Amino acid sequence: MEKSLMLIPQIRTDTRRWTTKITITEDIPVMTCSTGSDLKLKRYVFTDDEGNQTSVSIFGDLINVYSPVLQLYKVYEISNAQVRFVQPQYQILNQPNQWILQRHTLIRPMPRDNPNLYHILDDLTPLSQIASTLKNGIQSVGM
Fold first, then answer.
1. What domains are defined for the chain?
2. Distance (Å, rounded) from C-alpha 31 to C-alpha 53?
3. Is residue 1 predicted with pLDDT exceeding 50?
């Protein structure tokens, strides 16, 4: 039986037992929560196949569980993250909801549907290597 994948706008705070396919389009560094505690927070932006986006947060020890798995520009099936309302001052996208990855959240790496769409992402030079690349004879950097 083929499972039915939902798009990001279909997943709301009252949605249960959902699965969606996303690409990680932003990976925001770990920070300390602004609540005055030492609680660590890691955020991502997930984008579905139609370009809809949602912000995603991971807290505390789960950062070490999920961060090694979640890689920028990779595709995943995600199921059952907690969806909750987020106050406007904490929003990173102009949306009232965010997803919270918890221990029961399921994450499954997926192959890219059309690898040709992503070939440029596999051929990028990291910013930290641009200086050495220029020293090796390449005289210009394109955007």
1. 8-113 (2.40.50.140)
2. 21
3. no
